[in-house]
Structure formats: C-alpha cells, structure tokens
Amino acid sequence: MDAEQLREYGHKMVDFIADYYKTIESFPVLSQVQPGYLRDLLPDSAPNQPDSFQHVLDDVQAKILPGVTHWQSPNYFAYYPSNSSVAGFLGEMLSAGLNIVGFSWITSPAATELEMIVLDWLAKMLKLPEDFLSAGQGGGVIQGTASEAVLVVLLAARDKVLRRVGKDALEKLVVYASDQTHSALQKACQIAGIHPENCRLLKANSSTNYALSPELLSETISHDLTTGLIPFFLCATVGTTSSTAVDPLLSLGKIAKSNGMWFHVDAAYAGSACVCPEFRHYMDGVEEADSFNMNAHKWFLTNFDCSALWVKDRSALVQALSTNPEFLKNKASQANMVVDYKDWQVPLGRRFRSLKLWMVLRLYGLENLQCYIRNHIKLAKHFENLVVQDPRFEVVTPRIFSLVCFRLLPPNDKDHGNKLNRELLDAVNSTGNVFISHTVLSDIYVLRFAVGAPLTEEKHVNAAWKVLQDKATSLLGESFC
Ligand code: PLP
C-alpha cells in the first residue's frame, strides 16, 4: 500500500463518484444492455503489465456504467431501495481502509465492541425489548443480508429443538410462515435440511391484506401435532416484499410460544420506518419474538451490506455455529470474557461494517432519520393519490409504508389485465426514465412503486407518473381516455 498513491488516486476516485451522483439522472435507470454485452468490450485475459488509473476510469465510464442499473437514481422505484449516503459511504471507505477481519474480539477489539454498542443504540431507537440488548443474554449482530439472518436463527432453533427431542427427529421438524414470506426462508430451510414437505407456507389473501392469519396457523399446527410432527419455527414479516403486509406479531407470537417454537420477525424493509413513533405499532408483539431483523442497507441510509439481527438468547446461536480450532484460541475467548462474532454467523471472516452504521447514526441523528422516512412515505402517499385520481388505474392493496401496489384496469371485464400490465411495465422501464417492478397477488399481476431512493423528490414522482400515464394511453388507445 503506497499511501501517496492512495491519496492521489483516492481523490480522483471520490471526484469520479461525486460527478456520477451529480449526473446520475442522465443515465437510463434500468440498464438497457443485452446479455453478454461486456465480453465484446473487454480483453480475454488480464494485462501482463499495469494499466494506467485514468485508462481504467475511462473504461468504467464507457464500458461499465452502461451495464449498471442505477439504484441510487432518484427515478428508481423498483423492488425495495438500497440506500447509499455520504455517511454510509465514508464508513464503508474507512472500513476498506482499515481492512480488518474481525472474526474474534482479539482480531480487532473495536470492531466487535462498536458493533455491540451500535446495535444496542439501534435497538433502543426501535424500542426493542431489553432482552435484545447486549447487557443481558441477548444482543445484536450485523449479518450481510436478511437471508443470512434467517438462516442463522433457523439453525439455532433447529439445534435447540433437536437437543430436546433427539437428533433423529430432523425429518419431523416443521417451519411455518405465510406464502408472502421472502424466499430467503425457503432457501434457509433447504440449507438447514428441513424437509421441503415440512415447510408450511400458509395462504394469505386480500381478506387479511396478505397478512398471516393466526387462526389458520393454529389449525395447521394442531393438525401437524396430531400426525406426530414437531412445529419448531415461525417466521413473521413486518412489511412483506410483495405488498408490505404486516403479520399480527402479538397473536402469532403467542401461538409460537405456547407451542415451544422459535419466533423470528423479518422486518428487512419496514423495520426502518419503526424508528418513527407513529409507525412503531407495526412492531407491537415483538416482545414475543426470539429474533428480529431489519436491513439498515435498504431504507436507512447505510450502504450495502448491513443487516441488523437481534436475538434474545445468544447462546442458541453460539451453540449452533461455534467452532474452536487451536489456531484461533486466545486468552480473552478462552476465558469467555468477550463476544466472538464468528460464532453468530456462517463465515469466519467479517468486515468492520459497524463503522458505516455508526457514521450514519452520528452524522444524521435520529430526528433526521425519522424525517427521511416520513418524507418517503409522504411521497408514496402523493403517488397513491395520483393513481386514485386516474379512473384507468386502481390501487390494489392499501398502502402502509412507502410502497404503492397498483395496476392499470383492463378495458373489459373478461380480461384479467395481466398481459396489459406486463406490457405497461416493459414500456415504462424501456424508456430508461424510470424503473419500477412487479409482483403477483392472488393471480393478479401488480405494479410496485417503491419510494426510497435518497435523492427522490416530488418532481421525480410526478415525472414517473407522467411516463406511466403516457404509456397507458398508448397501450389502451386514445379512445379509452
Ligand atoms: N425479507 C424481506 C421482507 C425482503 O423484502 C427482502 C428483500 O427485499 C429480504 C428478506 C431479503 O433480503 P436480503 O437481500 O438482505 O437477503
């Protein structure tokens, strides 16, 4: 590492990135390249001799940026957001600069201790029960993604129940969630060896706004118990991926508890909103949970990746995931005086991710973060009003946070409108002026408009709506208007 070279190139790189942000609206939001485009533009093998930094930057501009979908564009409304911010970026930069690998406390005490402190701070902002704080038996840990979070708690829960009922009972273990739960749970079950036929994805429909019904859960558990199966894990969601449905945590949690099950709450997207007192009630019942997860990298100004997971009983994680090879032994770990986060996650190595969350919390503060969330929700409400005012469209599910699920109504009753809306999505996204995504709810193809990019303002929402209206007009034909 040549410090002076870093200074020179680093300044140039920051200039390059700052210019990128200044001109971000000049790029098509959704990359318009065809599969394989880059093979034709880059050589077959790496250079033998060093290239110049400027040459590389020129290639980024000419060859890489056309293949980038601009998640930070103010015209990005697809999936859920993946925020970047000055604070998050600086934290990421500092983490890259120090480049430690903090698997055990001894490998960088500050990395472990800052992570514990920052997750306690965030837990307090979310008003999580005290059991989730690091002072007791619980605590927080930063995982890479919500998928890793649900995997590690599923492994902890699996091993906990198998210790009770015996190792041979694996094939009897049953997992419950609604069919709106993120596919990360299904993947976790595959990895954890849960038999596919024992994953109960219970149907949720418009009668509950796509939330999991406690009655249906109870009935299913009772039936499974009568056939000798062992219910052991329930995953509820606050803010489902398709439509931001909120599962009723309190009643679901009580059912889980009375059946001795682990109760995990996935608030990957909507958890951020719960730092605002007026949205905190969506988490009511989290007292019943064994684990809670929110992605600070989605809608909380913290650059990817930073998925915050809290557990009430950290020993369950450690028992499932710890190893203690000779080459990692050290006095602090052996004396049980410290947290070694390697035992709370799948990989050994881990980055100093708490730096960026710490920067975000310190450089913005709770009040600004709350305003940030409220502003996006206000913009989503504004978009929802625009949709409601145009009789050609309908809002499909009630908006709760910053996602609007809507569709263009088919011109006649016989057609369910799925093809029409698929065509509308393609037409809108191929303009490059806006990027939205879709889902399917009760067999209906639905368009999703998720507000959450840090640079989005009302003018961007209005412009996106204009593109949608214009493309709808072309598809339906002038006569329909
Ligand atoms: N859970 C919910 C509710 C989500 O919306 C998502 C992604 O959008 C995930 C889990 C998966 O997130 P990750 O990419 O962090 O694994």
Automatic annotation (TrEMBL):
<dbReference type="GO" id="GO:0030170">
    <property type="term" value="F:pyridoxal phosphate binding"/>
</dbReference>
<comment type="similarity">
    <text>Belongs to the group II decarboxylase family.</text>
</comment>
<dbReference type="Pfam" id="PF00282">
    <property type="entry name" value="Pyridoxal_deC"/>
</dbReference>
<dbReference type="GO" id="GO:0005737">
    <property type="term" value="C:cytoplasm"/>
</dbReference>
<dbReference type="GO" id="GO:0006520">
    <property type="term" value="P:amino acid metabolic process"/>
</dbReference>
<dbReference type="InterPro" id="IPR010977">
    <property type="entry name" value="Aromatic_deC"/>
</dbReference>
<dbReference type="GO" id="GO:0019752">
    <property type="term" value="P:carboxylic acid metabolic process"/>
</dbReference>
<dbReference type="InterPro" id="IPR015424">
    <property type="entry name" value="PyrdxlP-dep_Trfase"/>
</dbReference>
<keyword id="KW-0210">Decarboxylase</keyword>
<keyword id="KW-0663">Pyridoxal phosphate</keyword>
<dbReference type="GO" id="GO:0016831">
    <property type="term" value="F:carboxy-lyase activity"/>
</dbReference>
<protein>
    <submittedName>
        <fullName>Aromatic aldehyde synthase</fullName>
    </submittedName>
</protein>
<feature type="modified residue" description="N6-(pyridoxal phosphate)lysine">
    <location>
        <position position="298"/>
    </location>
</feature>
<keyword id="KW-0456">Lyase</keyword>
<dbReference type="InterPro" id="IPR002129">
    <property type="entry name" value="PyrdxlP-dep_de-COase"/>
</dbReference>
<dbReference type="InterPro" id="IPR015422">
    <property type="entry name" value="PyrdxlP-dep_Trfase_small"/>
</dbReference>
<dbReference type="InterPro" id="IPR015421">
    <property type="entry name" value="PyrdxlP-dep_Trfase_major"/>
</dbReference>
<dbReference type="InterPro" id="IPR021115">
    <property type="entry name" value="Pyridoxal-P_BS"/>
</dbReference>
